[in-house]
Design goal:
This protein has 109 residues and is mostly helical. It has a domain at 34-108. The chain contains two helices and no strands. The protein has helices spanning 3-32, 36-108. The protein is rod-shaped, with a radius of gyration of 44 Å.
Length: 109
């Protein structure tokens, strides 16, 4: 291979490398670029996402508060139920005592 063939082969190889690099840059730029109109759409989507996250956070806070209220209400209701059951138990015991007292009084006469 003489000197001129070597220079031509080197030039062809360098040109092919340049062409491949330029094509890769163009393809990457083509598929990843965002147009000006798309930026506005992305801004709107980001704003909507932010609002949705805020709404979700507010809903979570509301649910936690509601759950706490309901748990408190359940606790109070259970306490009232226990008190009512104790009162009923005492009333039944008293009624039984009264029955036995009345039966004893009837048997004595």
């Amino acid at each position: 291979m003489n000197r001129s063939e070597f220079v031509i082969a080197t030039a062809i190889i360098l040109f092919a490398a340049f062409a491949m690099g330029w094509f890769a840059y163009w393809a990457l730029h083509r598929f990843t670029r965002v147009a000006g109109g798309d930026m506005g759409e992305l801004d709107n989507m980001a704003q909507s996402l932010h609002e949705a996250e805020e709404t979700r956070d507010q809903a979570i806070i509301y649910l936690e508060q509601r759950e706490a209220e309901l748990s408190n209400h359940i606790t109070q209701t259970e306490a009232e139920l226990r008190a009512a059951m104790d009162g009923l138990r005492d009333a039944r015991r008293e009624a039984e005592e009264m029955r036995t007292y009345i039966e004893r009084m009837n048997n004595q006469t």
